[in-house]
Amino acid sequence: MKLYIDLDKCSGECPRCVVECSYFYHNGNNGIVALREILTYALICRRCEEPHCVNSCPQNALEKQVDGILKRYLMRCISCKSCSHACPYGVILPELVPYLNSMCDLCLDRRDSQGQPICILTCPYKALELRDIQANEQEAIFQIGENLIVHSTHWSRAKA
């Protein structure tokens, strides 16, 4: 079973993430927010040749990696949200740039003992599920790593 996230629901219908998290170290900050950020950078970001978001950061907290995907360095980020204002496509949402952040561990070590992760049970929009599903590009379903599968209707760059 993989954690299935419908990023379209997560980004479109949900005005603010209210899911709870059972991970002890999250301490009021759920890991889904960080997961949404990574998925947004991987699937929705336009990967600009000269990224305004990276250039606008006063702390050099954003970096465009070799594969074009953005990476945010949490220890440098001061949550000024300059990157979200500078992005001409509205990809970096202000709520995806918290000052403190906790990474989702997908509840891999707690699934058997507790059944459904608490994030799935508390998501009011049913954007999170445990599913036995495979990637399917025609249906906009993408696998990220071994245990994560994402639905996202994202853009595709026209080939010149």
Descriptive account of the structure:
This protein is an alpha+beta fold and 160 residues long. The chain has one domain. Helices cover 24% and strands 14% of the residues. It has helices at residues 7-12, 31-43, 52-56, 82-86, 111-114, 118-122; strands spanning 2-6, 62-64, 70-72, 128-131, 141-144, 148-151. A four-stranded mixed sheet has the order 4-1-6-5. The radius of gyration is 16 Å and the shape is globular. The protein starts with a strand and ends in a 9-residue tail after the last strand.
Features:
4-stranded mixed beta sheet; 6 helices; alpha+beta; two-stranded antiparallel sheet; 6 strands; 160 residues
Brief rundown of the structure:
With 160 residues, the protein is an alpha+beta fold. It has helices at residues 7-12, 31-43, 52-56, 82-86, 111-114, 118-122; strands at residues 2-6, 62-64, 70-72, 128-131, 141-144, 148-151. It has one domain (2-151).
